[in-house]
Amino acid sequence: MTFDVAAESYERFMGAWSTGLAPQLIAYAGVRPGQTVLDVGCGPGILTRPLVDLLGADHVVAVDPSPSFVAATADRFPGVRVAEAGAESLPLDDGEVDHALAQLVVHFMTDPVAGLAEMARVTRPGGVVAASVWDHGGGRGPLSTFFDAVQSLDPDNPGERDYAGVNAGHLGELFRAAGLGNVEETRHDVERHYDDVDAWWAPYTLGVGPAGAYVAGLDDDGKQALLEACRARLPRGPFTATASAWVARGTVT
């Protein structure tokens, strides 16, 4: 899936969540100074930034299928090799990087097994492929409250609970199907503070991802009804929300 939105819109919608996940994924993959790492589905550079801070720009490669995200990442991180590409067809040589990471990307890949196999192809033998996806299946993702409200009004809407890797154990299954060895799985948590429900709702109106597209397709009455359904499920006043992501890593053999 390509996100045809401005980098700033994505950051308002998902950036604060994914910023908290990024250092956890980097540590879980065992990334160390001196290594070269590929950031697959880099978006506007949420994971790219801490990788550059740790490794230096010349040791980071980033790809994304969205032209606006590629432009934003290239502009923000001079020296990083950035390319417009999907996970299933990476513009890198075999074994070119030490690790390949994909944060919140696998569930949007056209063919997740092919995408993970491509990440393994471009990673050296003994290197690590690691990825995270939100726990949409278990109802602990950052969009779970939103889609619960959607389904109360639109029962036929499946939300994101059937996406690849979002249910317990499935991400590891995809890794094994892609030929990775020593596959391990865990869960990472992240928190985000909101001043009120209106602050929580505002990013959904920016047209980002399936949730934003759903809101954009509603008329004014539909948007108001959905907002009120969300409001009934959220605390009043300032609140802190917690979201969980499934995370897996595997070794290239």
Automatic annotation (TrEMBL):
Chain ranges of the Methyltransferase type domain: 38-130
GO molecular function: S-adenosylmethionine-dependent methyltransferase activity
One Pfam family it belongs to: Methyltransf_11
Record keywords: Methyltransferase, Transferase
GO biological process, one term: methylation
Keyword Zinc-finger applies: no
InterPro entries, alphabetized: Diverse_substrate_MTase, Methyltransf_11, SAM-dependent_MTases_sf
Transmembrane segments: none
Family: Belongs to the methyltransferase superfamily.
Descriptive protein name: SAM-dependent methyltransferase
Origin species: Nocardioides ginsengisegetis
